[in-house]
TrEMBL record:
This is Phenylpropionate dioxygenase, large terminal subunit. InterPro entries: Cholesterol_7-desaturase, DUF5914, Rieske_2Fe-2S, Rieske_2Fe-2S_sf. It comes from Lentzea fradiae. SUPFAM superfamilies: ISP domain. Keywords: 2Fe-2S, Dioxygenase, Iron, Iron-sulfur, Metal-binding, Oxidoreductase.
Length: 332
C-alpha cells in the first residue's frame, strides 16, 4: 500500500503528520521581491488602515499582566495609566498619578478591590475623585485595553474592535517589545509581506504573495512555509488584515493550525516610542491538541520567544522607516 494511502475510514499518514520536507533555493538565489513590494501599494494599504476607527481604545498588555492584588502601570501616548483588578476580578483603570500629591499609583497596593496610594493611603474605587479620572477598560481574555478619549479624539466605542479569534480550547501567549518608532511604522512592516523570506530566512521559506489588498478586498493572502529545523517545515496560507489603525492580524486560513491567529498591536508610549504587543492564539482540530491545552504554561515561553525573535528584526525595519521619515528621506 502506498505510504500516502490508508484503509477506508482512517486518515492517511501524510494528513496525520503536519510536517513537510520542503525544497527552497539558498538565500542569495531566491527570486528578488523588491519589484513586487511596491511602495505605493504598501502606503495605500497603510492609509486605509490608519483611517479606520479605533473608538480610542489602546492595548495596555496581556490579561495576565494585571493580577489580583497588585496594580500595573503603563504609559500610553504620554499618559500615565494604572490598571488593577477591582471587586470580583473586574478590570479597572485610571490616571496613574495620585490626585493628592502626584504619587505613582502603580507603586501602590490593592485591597478589597480598592487602589491604595502608598504615600498617604488615599483609596480609589474606580470612580472620579477630585482631579483623578477613571478610564473605561476592557479585558478580552487575552489582552487588556484602555480607552483614552482625550488622546484618541475619535467617537468613543463601547468596546475595542477585535478580530475573529479561534474557539475555546486555544493556547495563547503574549510578547511585548519596545521600539524607537511610531505605530504606523509597526503596521507598515506587517503590510510588507515580501520581506519575509529575505529578512527572516530562519523562520520563512517559499513565501509567495497570492493576493494584494484592494479597496474592495483589503487583505494580503500569503503562501509560506514556517521553518522548524533543517528542511522540515509547515506550509500554510495566511491572510493579513487591519481591523483598526493600530492592529494587524494574521489568520491561518489553510494548512496546519487553520483558525490560529497572530494579532500585532502597536501602542504608542510617547512620540517616537511604541510598544509592540503581539498575541499568538494557537488552534488545531487535531485530537492531540486538546491534550496539549493543560500544558499551555510550558508552550507559552516558547511562543513568546518565537515572537520576540521575529520582532527583533522587524523592529529594526520599523525603526529604520521611522528614522528615514523623520529625516525626510523615506522613499516615495
Amino acid at each position: 500500500m502506498p505510504p500516502d494511502k490508508a484503509p477506508e475510514g482512517k486518515v492517511p499518514l501524510r494528513d496525520r503528520i503536519p510536517l513537510r520536507v520542503y525544497q527552497s533555493p539558498p538565500w542569495r538565489e531566491q527570486r528578488p521581491t523588491w519589484q513586487d513590494a511596491k511602495p505605493a501599494l504598501i502606503e495605500a494599504a497603510l492609509k486605509r488602515a490608519m483611517a479606520r476607527p479605533s473608538g480610542n481604545w489602546f492595548v495596555a498588555g496581556a490579561s495576565r499582566d494585571v493580577v489580583k492584588g497588585k496594580p500595573c502601570g503603563r504609559t500610553i501616548a504620554g499618559q500615565e495609566v494604572v490598571l488593577w483588578r477591582g471587586p470580583h476580578g473586574v478590570l479597572m483603570a485610571g490616571s496613574g498619578s495620585c490626585p493628592h500629591l502626584g504619587a505613582p499609583l502603580c507603586d501602590g497596593a490593592v485591597a478589597e478591590g480598592k487602589l491604595i496610594c502608598r504615600w498617604h493611603g488615599l483609596a480609589l474605587e474606580g470612580k472620579r475623585f477630585g482631579a483623578w479620572t477613571p478610564y473605561p477598560a476592557h479585558d478580552d481574555g487575552v489582552l487588556v485595553w484602555v480607552r483614552l478619549d482625550q488622546v484618541g479624539g475619535e467617537e468613543p466605542l463601547d468596546a475595542p474592535v477585535l478580530p475573529v479569534r479561534p474557539p475555546e480550547g486555544s493556547i495563547d501567549a503574549v510578547a511585548t517589545l519596545i521600539g524607537r518608532c511610531d505605530p504606523e511604522d509597526v503596521v507598515a512592516n506587517r503590510l510588507d509581506p515580501w520581506h519575509g523570506a529575505w529578512f527572516h530566512p530562519y523562520s520563512f521559506a517559499n513565501l509567495h504573495v497570492l493576493e494584494t489588498p484592494t479597496e474592495a478586498d483589503d487583505r494580503f493572502l500569503v503562501e509560506v512555509t514556517f521553518r522548524l529545523a533543517g528542511r522540515i517545515g509547515v506550509p500554510v496560507v495566511a491572510a493579513f488584515t487591519c481591523p483598526e489603525p493600530r492592529t494587524i492580524v494574521m489568520h491561518i486560513v489553510e494548512g496546519e493550525g487553520s483558525g490560529s491567529v497572530v494579532e500585532t498591536h502597536a501602542t504608542p508610549i510617547r512620540e517616537g516610542r511604541t510598544a509592540v504587543v503581539e498575541a499568538t492564539i494557537a488552534h488545531s482540530d487535531r485530537p492531540g491538541f486538546a491534550l496539549a491545552k493543560p500544558a499551555a504554561g510550558m508552550f507559552r515561553p516558547v511562543m513568546r520567544w518565537a515572537a520576540a525573535r521575529l520582532w527583533r528584526d522587524d523592529l529594526a525595519y520599523a525603526e529604520r522607516r521611522h528614522a528615514l521619515r523623520q529625516a525626510g528621506r523615506f522613499p516615495d
